[in-house]
Amino acid sequence: ASFRVLSSILLALFAVAASTEEETGCPFALEDADEQLEDEEVLAQHVELLQRGTVVLARQKDLTQACPLDALIGFWAGKEGNMTVTPVADCSGVEAQFNIFGMLGNYTITPVDTWETPSTLVASEYGQGLKIRFTNKKLDYHHEGSYDPASDTLVEDLSHWNGTAVGGNLITMKRVN
């Protein structure tokens, strides 16, 4: 399915380039500068998606480089917010853009062998899942969490900040796509 999506995007991009070149003699040449800037931004977004998709496809072809967190790639949503998870090239984890309680940010999600503060997660129904850490490098903090493959649920423990209890809840998200 991933290959078909990437193929469709590539074909659409080549079709736009071909039709623009026929009309103007130059690929992506547009008369209006604002329209050109907007098209360049859209093209940059498509290129970024293609690059991320290529990473996933390369991993799928090379089974020796199966990344445990590839299972998290996709769009997640819950009542507290949403998260888009994308791969990284070196298999060290995954990247996520989040909107939780209206706050926007980025996480690097990595697997961990043990939680610093396991009590909240172990007591939950998701305590047997894959142990992970959500790290916000920009603001220098982390939360622990889990991924339960049986229910396809992503859990983040907001009751702890860098291993210190601060109050709060577990938030759960389900995969949307």
User: What share of residues are in beta strands?
Assistant: 25-35%
Q: Give the ordered list of helices and strands.
A: HHEEEEHEEEEEE
What is the molecular shape?
globular
Mean pLDDT: 74
Query: Could you say which structural class the secondary elements and strand pairing correspond to?
Result: alpha+beta
Find the count of extended strands (DSSP E, 2+ residues). 10
Question: Helix fraction?
Answer: 25-40%
Continuous helix count: 3
**Runs with pLDDT <50, length 5+?**
1-33, 59-63
Major sheet size, sense and barrel closure:
8 strands, antiparallel, barrel
Radius of gyration (CA) equals 20 Å
Query: N- to C-terminal separation?
Result: 12 Å
- Order of strands across the main sheet: 1-2-3-4-5-6-7-10
Question: How would you describe the overall organization of this protein?
Answer:
- The protein has 3 helices and 10 strands.
- By secondary structure, it is an alpha+beta fold.
- Helix 1 packs antiparallel against helix 2 (33-61).
- The chain is globular.
- The chain starts with a helix and ends with a strand.
- The relative contact order is 0.11.
